Amino acid sequence: MTHTLPVGIASTAVVAASSANLGPGFDSLGLALSLYDEIVVETTESGLQVEVEGEGAGQVPLDASHLVVRAIEAGLRATGFSAPGLIVRCRNDIPHSRGLGSSAAAVVGGLAAVNGLVTQVGSEPMTEAQLIQLSSEFEGHPDNAAAAVVGGAVVSWTEEGAGPGGQPRYSAASVRLHPDIRLFSAVPQQRSSTAETRVLLPEQVSHVDARFNVSRVALLMVALSERPDLLMAATEDVLHQPQRAAAMPASAEYLQILRRSGIAAVLSGAGPSVLGLSSQVGLPAQALEYGAANGFTVREMSVGSGVRWTSGVAARA
């Protein structure tokens, strides 16, 4: 049975950017970053109004096909509610199509905003596990989505056929991040999409390459939580970064410059942004100079928080 939400209630969700893979952990590892989008949803008597500020303004659709709206509708169905009308305001700081989880943030934020609505009428919010499941269904894999839901570093996995209606079941567990690890993001002006770069990957890989990445993922769990001195070796990858390099040469070169400088750099998700992990303070001059000369926005970041929602229109984070 579906219930209709009353007119005039509002909620706010704040959701973090994320970086997936972290080198060898293809489609499995994720890390939330301290860059946030804010979504404000209000129920109205009828219709749909979508407003976008910041990243994506003037570029994304302002109708029911908007990803946040689609997520809100999915969240309403999951909780047994409908809304007579909606105003959806998106205030975006996460760059689009740069490998920083903007689509996962849109979905997770839309779902979380539903939690802020339904709790006002006495209904239970969706659990963390439900948010991971629903948001991963949009994405097709849980790495970015799980990081956006939970915050911090996560390892995620998929169980085929174990979910609702025989669909995949998506799950995640948190990984403690060593306090000495510093994060640096380098975001180029170039855009990319996971769909475009995924076709560059082979359907099959050799036993040798699979073994190499398995060993590096295992080592990365140790490096992230206990031994940051192992990050360089632990972030090596042969399954996806070399294959994507030709499509984003500036990012591939920047990655190598950072690694030669002692920064454990990886492509952020499918790129073209680059993420650096290090226990040292700051970046070497050569890395900063290359970034400035090639249009990268370079900044030090901290670990992002899990998605938050409140009832009403909250002050921006």
UniProtKB/TrEMBL annotation:
<feature type="binding site">
    <location>
        <begin position="95"/>
        <end position="105"/>
    </location>
    <ligand>
        <name>ATP</name>
    </ligand>
</feature>
<dbReference type="InterPro" id="IPR006204">
    <property type="entry name" value="GHMP_kinase_N_dom"/>
</dbReference>
<dbReference type="InterPro" id="IPR020568">
    <property type="entry name" value="Ribosomal_Su5_D2-typ_SF"/>
</dbReference>
<feature type="domain" description="GHMP kinase N-terminal">
    <location>
        <begin position="67"/>
        <end position="152"/>
    </location>
</feature>
<dbReference type="GO" id="GO:0016301">
    <property type="term" value="F:kinase activity"/>
</dbReference>
<dbReference type="Pfam" id="PF08544">
    <property type="entry name" value="GHMP_kinases_C"/>
</dbReference>
<dbReference type="InterPro" id="IPR006203">
    <property type="entry name" value="GHMP_knse_ATP-bd_CS"/>
</dbReference>
<protein>
    <recommendedName>
        <fullName>Homoserine kinase</fullName>
        <ecNumber>2.7.1.39</ecNumber>
    </recommendedName>
</protein>
<dbReference type="Pfam" id="PF00288">
    <property type="entry name" value="GHMP_kinases_N"/>
</dbReference>
<keyword id="KW-0418">Kinase</keyword>
<keyword id="KW-0808">Transferase</keyword>
<dbReference type="InterPro" id="IPR013750">
    <property type="entry name" value="GHMP_kinase_C_dom"/>
</dbReference>
<keyword id="KW-0963">Cytoplasm</keyword>
<keyword id="KW-0028">Amino-acid biosynthesis</keyword>
<dbReference type="InterPro" id="IPR000870">
    <property type="entry name" value="Homoserine_kinase"/>
</dbReference>
<comment type="pathway">
    <text>Amino-acid biosynthesis; L-threonine biosynthesis; L-threonine from L-aspartate: step 4/5.</text>
</comment>
<keyword id="KW-0547">Nucleotide-binding</keyword>
<comment type="similarity">
    <text>Belongs to the GHMP kinase family. Homoserine kinase subfamily.</text>
</comment>
<keyword id="KW-0067">ATP-binding</keyword>
<dbReference type="InterPro" id="IPR036554">
    <property type="entry name" value="GHMP_kinase_C_sf"/>
</dbReference>
<keyword id="KW-0791">Threonine biosynthesis</keyword>
<comment type="function">
    <text>Catalyzes the ATP-dependent phosphorylation of L-homoserine to L-homoserine phosphate.</text>
</comment>
<feature type="domain" description="GHMP kinase C-terminal">
    <location>
        <begin position="232"/>
        <end position="278"/>
    </location>
</feature>
<dbReference type="InterPro" id="IPR014721">
    <property type="entry name" value="Ribsml_uS5_D2-typ_fold_subgr"/>
</dbReference>
